[in-house]
Design goal:
Layout: H1 3-21, E1 25-33, E2 36-43, E3 48-57, H2 69-85, E4 94-104, E5 107-117
Parallel strand pairs: 3-4
Antiparallel strand pairs: 1-2, 2-3, 4-5
Length: about 120
């Protein structure tokens, strides 16, 4: 693993701990199917949480702001694929969350944004 991958994994680990502290159960990490990818899939009392984690070192741009429309579209497609492969989640309401992780002096500052975006179904 290179430095960027190590930082990204550490950010995902921190995000998982935070989500579990909020009472969520992690059901999948780093789900991949073909070109589809999800960072974290969790369940809570509201439904299924698809969580995109963005980790950055200290800088000008917010990690969460890097989840643009194209990325959102890819995450939604991956969520559909995940649910089609895991039918036990087919009746769940699905939410798309973001955890922005900023590394500041070797500390991680987490910014959790529940229901960060709502996909438009056309």
């Amino acid at each position: 693993m290179n430095g960027r991958q190590i930082t990204g994994k550490a950010g995902e680990d921190a995000a998982c701990r935070m989500l579990e502290e909020k009472g969520m159960m992690i059901v999948a990490r780093n789900y991949r199917s073909g070109h589809y990818e999800l960072d974290i899939v969790a369940v809570d009392g509201e439904g299924l949480r698809i969580v995109e984690v963005r980790t950055r070192t200290e800088g000008d741009i917010s990690p969460a702001s890097t989840v643009d429309r194209r990325k959102q579209s890819n995450v939604v497609a991956a969520a559909r694929k995940f649910i089609s492969e895991n039918e036990e989640f087919s009746g769940y309401e699905v939410f798309f969350d973001i955890v922005g992780v900023t590394v500041v002096d070797k500390n991680m500052v987490l910014d959790y944004i529940p229901k960060a975006y709502i996909p438009i179904y056309v």
